[in-house]
Amino acid sequence: MGRSLPGQQVGHGWPTGRTDEPGHQALRRLQGRGLLDGLPVAVGYFPTAAAFGLAARQAGLQPVEALLMSALIYAGASQFALVGMMQAPALAAAGVALLLNLRHALYGPVLARHLGPLARRGLRGWAQAAACAFGLTDEVFAVASVRLAGGSFGLRWLAALELVAYGSWLAGTLAGAVGGEALLRVLPAAEPALGFALPALFVGLLVPMLGGGQGPPSQGHQRPAGLALDRSPTRAAAAAAAAAAAACVLVGMGSWAVVAGAAAGVLAGEVAGRWGRR
Amino acid sequence: MSPQEPVRAWLAAVVAAVGLGTYLARALPLLAALRRRGAAASGEGFAGRPGSAGASADAAGPGGRLELVAPSVMAALLVSSVLPARWGPEALAQLAAHLVALAVSWAVARLRGHLGLTVLAGMAAAWAARAVVMALR
């Protein structure tokens, strides 16, 4: 893992003298690439956030309160849950919202494997990693886990990606909360397309992991080396995760779909890996 | 609390608490993992560097399970975003459109391998499929 491409920075995103161009230009290029890679996430976030802004207004929240939720919590499932529990005791609403976000604890250790050198950059490196942790949503993790595994992108790329996604989330919330009913009249025509933006993003990220896709890395397709080498456990993990998530949704426990899917997937992948080594 | 107040104090407190909890759920595991890797790197030279022998060893050991987290989470997110939360005629129409769009975006991802193109193709297919489904009903 961690093969650097000509003219690109490796892992941590600081100039290392290992590129063919001045460090600041390489960093700018990485940031630009991060902004570009964030666009599919932003396209998916905007309508979702607009729907949240609208739901918040209909639940009696002021636009500034809806915006505060998006700015501080920045987690769609929790925000929708909070809005839906406006009449419930505050402690219960907060507890449910926090439970929904426990799955995010899975993401840090995965990304840390590709950000390892940061730990040697002192307080500044820790502060930057702590800042990037704020934007570690499901979709950002989905994009980052694929790109960072390629080893050619680092923390500045991740920060740029998160900035685009966060900006879209805030803008969507504001549009939904302020635009209100007017947005309802505009969105229905585009709703089917906008509603499939996030599923399409997940497809685009999952397929290369399973060994599909022919595009080179420069075309926005980066296959994680470790996954491409060992497809059978990965496919078993994805199939088990999909089945577990579907079961959760079908029995009305959709908020547990990701956690159950991750647990089932890792277990199935582990079993498939051991079976393959026998 | 007056309804004219822009932000109600109790709501601000709940939002701040949930925001802090969410941030800690994201940050603590990341920082702890970085700290562990930093400690391992200081004992094993360049073990923490991507592409190094240490990183490979990590992938083969406990980190091998971490490799499975990303595709598992992705598959779970995909399924839970495609399946409707509530069932009914409208949900079935949406599911049908989503399945067509899923097939199209999957095909584009396999054939072209371009993330942006996959998203756009999926969105266009979802729009077209929904229009066809609504016309047939």
Describe this structure in words.
The complex is a heterodimer of chains A (278) and B (137). Chain A is built from 13 helices and no strands. Chain A is globular and about 60 Å long. The model of chain A is unreliable at 1-20 and 213-229 (pLDDT under 50). Chain A is an all-alpha fold and 278 residues long. Helices cover 70% and strands 0% of the residues of chain A. Chain B has 137 residues and is an all-alpha fold. In chain B, 79% of the residues lie in helices and 0% in strands. Chain B has 5 helices and no strands. Chain B has helices spanning 9-43, 53-60, 63-82, 89-111, 115-136. In chain B, helix 2 (53-60) crosses helix 3 (63-82) and helix 4 packs antiparallel against helix 5 (115-136). Classes of the chains: A mainly alpha (278), B mainly alpha (137). Chains A and B meet through helix 1, helix 2, helix 4, helix 5 and helix 6 of A and helix 1, helix 2, helix 3, helix 4 and helix 5 of B.
